[in-house]
């Protein structure tokens, strides 16, 4: 399974299958549901999938934050290691997924499903033991603040709103009267500086926000333009597990007379591309860039994300060109009206778009992870990673919405939709060109906000 997609598959499967379960094995009796003994294994299976979905929701954003917390950002050597942590974490995850695709899939299909589930169960148990054994060596962040970080940052917005009429001169005068130096922080989101004043109608100084609280609130606001401009990347991200596979399903996938490559297995090339690219990036490209820029990470996190978005555009362009070639081949061989016929065009044509897509993911996804961890306030690191994950979730919903709108718009007056069931009459190439154009616009907006982005002090860029 493709990296970062696995956590939602079980939940989505349940939402589709579970509503029909009562009709097959369970009966309602006076508002209670009774099931025959033969249905209990199915119930346990569904319950286990729900547990996986819940566990992933807590594990996925926290494990990266906890791992990165083990590095001291003030130490030059550990700062470099921290920059590599996200690369190798993603490398390890994708390597494990590739092993699961190759080995576990074979075991489940050819030996035993029970054995196929038992092996990851044992591996997870071993991993849990290793995790617990390392407890004595972990670094834990000391929380010096009694108040919740959400309360502290929320108070900044509340106080700034209450003091919205205050002027800059009023702010300077009050700070001087308190013996504080004039505020020297970044001048973006200056309206939040008013939270440093005593709120109107309050006679107690205890309601005044500190400069660090104001800086934390600004740090969160600075991330939202980056988050919004990356949503288009989230749309592109969802195509590899949907339309790419539909393309491959119509093409010649035979390797030998007796073996045909499953269309879904082509996603393994994305994982393979990531596994090959990350070591090259971390061991060759980063040290080279580090020697030029003198930055611990070689290039900044925003530059890395921008390179990933640009590479995703190349992937969409190549996908559109390959689809145009596929449609031409179908027309040349008179297969336009034969949706189930195999197009005499090798599925190898799809490999470049998968490989470039993998490079894009290694750049953008890891860059987003590092940015949303590094730039969030200390007590909100895992929340930042959850915010990064929301790019993929919302991007998937936006992709479905966009496809629905285009489907309805292009199927009017008896015309074939861009997403016709007969792909030989459809126009996935138009959709890929559209995504490439939208991504180019989003990249331009991203560059605009990235150029004016002010990194937090002490950031490990």
UniProtKB/TrEMBL annotation:
Domain of life assignment: Eukaryota
UniProt entry tagged with the keyword Membrane: yes
Spans through the membrane: 88-107, 113-138, 223-244, 264-281, 302-322, 385-406, 430-449
GO MF assignments: transmembrane transporter activity
UniProt KW keywords: Membrane, Transmembrane, Transmembrane helix
UniProt GO cellular component terms: membrane
SUPFAM superfamilies: MFS general substrate transporter (SSF103473)
Tagged with keyword Membrane: yes
Family named by the database record: Belongs to the major facilitator superfamily. Phosphate:H(+) symporter (TC 2.A.1.9) family. Belongs to the major facilitator superfamily. Proton-dependent oligopeptide transporter (POT/PTR) (TC 2.A.17) family.
Location in the cell: Membrane
Signal peptide (from-to): none
Pfam families associated with the record: PTR2
Membrane topology: Multi-pass membrane protein
Protein name from the UniProt record: Major facilitator superfamily (MFS) profile domain-containing protein
Major site of localization recorded for this protein: membrane
């Amino acid at each position: 399974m493709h990296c970062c997609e696995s956590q939602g598959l079980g939940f989505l499967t349940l939402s589709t299958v579970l509503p029909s379960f009562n009709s097959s094995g369970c009966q309602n009796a006076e508002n209670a549901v009774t099931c025959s003994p033969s249905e209990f294994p199915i119930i346990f299976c569904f319950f286990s999938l729900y547990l996986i979905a819940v566990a992933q929701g807590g594990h996925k954003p926290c494990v990266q934050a906890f791992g990165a917390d083990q590095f001291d950002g003030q130490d030059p050597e550990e700062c470099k290691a921290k920059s590599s942590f996200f690369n190798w974490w993603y490398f390890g995850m994708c390597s494990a997924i590739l092993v699961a695709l190759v080995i576990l899939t074979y075991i489940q299909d050819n030996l035993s499903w029970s054995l196929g589930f038992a092996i990851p169960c044992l591996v997870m148990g071993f991993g849990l033991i290793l995790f617990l054994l390392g407890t004595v060596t972990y670094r834990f962040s000391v929380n010096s603040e009694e108040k919740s970080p959400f309360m502290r940052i929320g108070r900044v917005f509340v106080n700034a709103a209450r003091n919205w009429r205050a002027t800059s001169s009023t702010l300077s005068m009050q700070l001087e009267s308190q013996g504080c130096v004039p505020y020297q922080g970044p001048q973006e989101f200056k309206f939040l500086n008013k939270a440093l004043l005593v709120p109107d109608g309050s006679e107690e100084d205890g309601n005044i926000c500190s400069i660090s609280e104001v800086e934390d609130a600004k740090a969160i606001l600075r991330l939202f333009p980056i988050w919004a401009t990356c949503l288009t990347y989230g749309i592109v991200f969802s195509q590899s597990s949907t339309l790419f596979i539909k393309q491959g399903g119509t093409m010649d996938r035979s390797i030998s007379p007796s073996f045909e490559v499953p269309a879904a297995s082509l996603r393994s090339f994305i994982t393979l591309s990531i596994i090959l690219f990350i070591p090259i990036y971390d061991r060759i490209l980063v040290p080279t860039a580090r020697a030029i820029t003198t930055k611990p990470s070689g290039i900044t996190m925003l530059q890395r994300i921008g390179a990933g978005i640009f590479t995703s555009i190349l992937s969409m362009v190549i996908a559109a060109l390959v689809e145009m070639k596929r449609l031409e081949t179908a027309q040349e061989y008179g297969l336009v009206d034969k949706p189930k016929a195999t197009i005499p065009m090798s599925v190898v044509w799809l490999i470049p778009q998968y490989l470039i897509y993998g490079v894009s993911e290694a750049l953008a996804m890891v860059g987003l992870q590092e940015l949303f961890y590094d730039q969030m306030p200390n007590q909100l690191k895992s929340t930042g990673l959850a915010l990064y994950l929301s790019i993929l979730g919302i991007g998937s919903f936006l992709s479905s919405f966009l496809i629905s709108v285009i489907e309805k718009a292009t199927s009017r007056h008896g015309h074939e939709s861009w997403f016709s069931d007969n792909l030989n009459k459809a126009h996935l190439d138009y959709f890929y060109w559209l995504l490439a154009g939208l991504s180019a616009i989003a990249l331009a907006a991203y560059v605009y906000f990235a150029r004016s982005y002010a990194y937090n002090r002490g950031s490990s860029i």
